[in-house]
Give the backbone structure.
Amino acid sequence: MPLVLGLDSSTQSVSAVVLDTDSDSIIHEESVSFGADLPDYCQPSGFIPGGENGEVHSDPMMWLDALELVFSRLAQSSVEMSDIVAVSGSGQQHGSVYLDEGFIDTVGNLDPRETLKGQILSHLTRQTAPIWMDSSTTVECGEITRALGGDTEVCSRSGSIAIERFTGPQIRRFAKTSYDGWELTGVVHLVSSFMASVVAGKSVAIDHGDGAGMNLLNLASGCWDNELLEATAPGLRAKLPSPEPSATVVGNVSQFFVENHGMDPNCKVVLFSGDNPCSLVGMGASKPGKVVISLGTSDTLFAAMPEPRTDPNGFGHVFGNPMGGFMSLICFLNGSLARERVKHSLGLSWSDFDREGLAQTPIGNLGRGMLPFFGSEITPRVTSSEAVYFGWPEGEREPAAVVRALLEGQFLNMKVSSRWLGVSPETIYLTGGASKNTGIAQTVADVFGVPVSRLSVPGSAALGAAMRAANAVCGIPLDSLEASFCQPDSGSTVQPRDGTREIYEELEQKWVSALHEAFPLLKD
Ligand code: XUL
């Protein structure tokens, strides 16, 4: 009974999914939440609260504790650990871990009697890891852009203009502000390659999917780009693992997990990738034709691309598709944290979002709308600390209408910001926590005017990682993995309702006008 394991090291948790490749079924899911399971780290949403100047950092040791806990829980479950033949994983994108040269030796000889944290902590040359929510590097983005000669040049090489949360600008800021720390750094890992290194017991490569989120990878050659490296930090090439195809099998699982958790010493490890590239696979969308919206801590919209096409406004990105070729991605920072904020401030439960919010209000909200930016947004790039309301009668802000305005505002933003892709989806595939809410799925269908389909598995990133492992190690074709694991949940497809098209065409125009009025510096 060959099993494969997919891990997902996300912003708020580390989770695992185990697939049985004989019976084509998901036999187990496990998750460790940083807030609920590791409260001592005081990072309830997965990052250190109170960062200044746009800094959002996380403790990489918390990720390692969670990894051990997930393996312990798996070993205590009904999963026969020694039947796992392959493992791969997914990581929140862009985050970076800074380690000294000694890490390479230590990770290659992990002592099963000690904790991972106990062995790796002393190798950190930067105690915390900047993650994708960090926006502290505007100056560095400008410096890299100027060195290369402009946005167009950076974008045509790396698939994105220089972006604050991307790893290159983050590395530059560290190298500038902590000269000693940078000198001591022997290797910079992404979250995905750091976690993969620990699982494989060797410092592994960075895959093309996640590597493209660094402003350092030359998309055309698949190699680090000399000019981008030079514009980023001195001596960077020697500190970066090599970029490799996502399907690379890096070796066997570390002895640490064999002795402590009963893994088979011959279990193979496949390079980990970013969460969005893995979700593309897990949603059955790695061949061009499907558009996926993932509702998570950040909301993302992504699709496989036959040819790399870049966003003229610079908000969208091109990453490597782990199954070959490219994918586009647009990230919206005000995702579930904005939904949670509205829910909390109005004292609602999730089901109230349906019952009290959407069901009690007319589609289009009688022209009352919201620019749903409760904190700075990256698509479009605006600095904001409060949502902007438009079209509301003075003094009226009843909770039900605010819920609708939030959701309609989020999905109108996605619709407007994804036009550059030039793709008219026939169906939108919805994933992530909030996708379970039928009212939310209905709103996506109405705003985009196409059916919305949902898969039965909530964790598409972990599932995609497991499918990648099954494909690379067991040779199971992608088509058959998709047929087994990526089927829409029966009866969960939501159709757009009659008459909604005209209502949203009108609301979209008002939404765009309100955006330009509130943020006049935005380009059209
Ligand atoms: C993508 C992005 C986020 C993170 C979330 O560019 O920044 O979606 O990957 O984990």
